[in-house]
Amino acid sequence: MSTIETRSITRELKLHAALLGGFVALLWSIEILDLVVFRGSLDALGIRPRTVPGLVGIALAPLLHGGFAHLAANTLPFVGLGWLIMLRKKRDLLLVTLVATLVGGLGVWLLGAPSSVHIGASGVIFGYFGFLLLRGWFERSALSIALSLVVGLVYGGMIWGVLPTRMGISWEGHLFGFLGGVLAARLLGGRLRAQAARAGARPLAGRQLRG
CA-CA distances (angstroms) from residue 35 to 65, 94, 197, 201? Predict the structure, then answer.
């Protein structure tokens, strides 16, 4: 590997670390502010199913957590899965985050338990998980299939989080966030397969073939 390639990879990894680290720093700053200044009252801005104020929570819920233990439990999978998404394209992370937030939040708002408040980035994390797990199926490339298998082996136990197995856990957020990630995999995977098909059908420039 040449020096130029090494520097390029190092620069790319630093950018990945800056993007993920910046968002993690934002989450921790918000939680510190909530606990120290607002005494936890910001948590009321989460998703409240089937209420008009609760619609605001679709955008805010991933930024809010029920204490440092809750946030710490979400930090490592957010960084790990987020980085795996950025390995191909950094902008993929933005698209998956937006789709998982929107689909996950709307699903919770429509079907969540009445009088409940849903907070936390776990819906987005499950969106990352769903995207990575199903990307190989939709893209049908060797690399994406291999990555999906690795994610299934390392993070496969997360799938049980979409079931209502524990009190106080937003399994609805996990489920609909996961489905949002699957939708993002379908959108991106379908687009890449279409591009590959068009490239394969394009004739070689400067070459004529006659029968």
Answer: 10, 28, 53, 58
d(CA 22, CA 20): 5
DSSP-derived 3-state class of residue 75: helix
Give kind and range of the element (H or E) at residue 24.
helix 3-36
CA separation for the pair 66, 70 (Å, rounded): 6
Q: Residue 175 and residue 111: Cα distance in Å, rounded?
A: 11
Q: How many CB atoms lie within 10 A of CB 83?
A: 16
Structural contact between residues 29 and 20, judged by C-beta atoms closer than 8 angstroms: no
Question: Are 34 and 71 within 8 A, CB to CB?
Answer: no
> pLDDT tens, 58-94?
999 999 999 999 999 999 999 999 999 998 888 999 9
Q: Is the pTM of this model over 0.85?
A: yes
Find the helix packing angle between 3-36 and 68-86, rounded to 10°. 160
- Cβ–Cβ contacts within 10 Å for residue 14, how many? 11
Residue pair 180/103 in contact (Cβ under 8 Å)? The answer is: yes
Instruction: Say if residues 162 and 171 touch (Cβ distance below 8 Å).
Output: yes
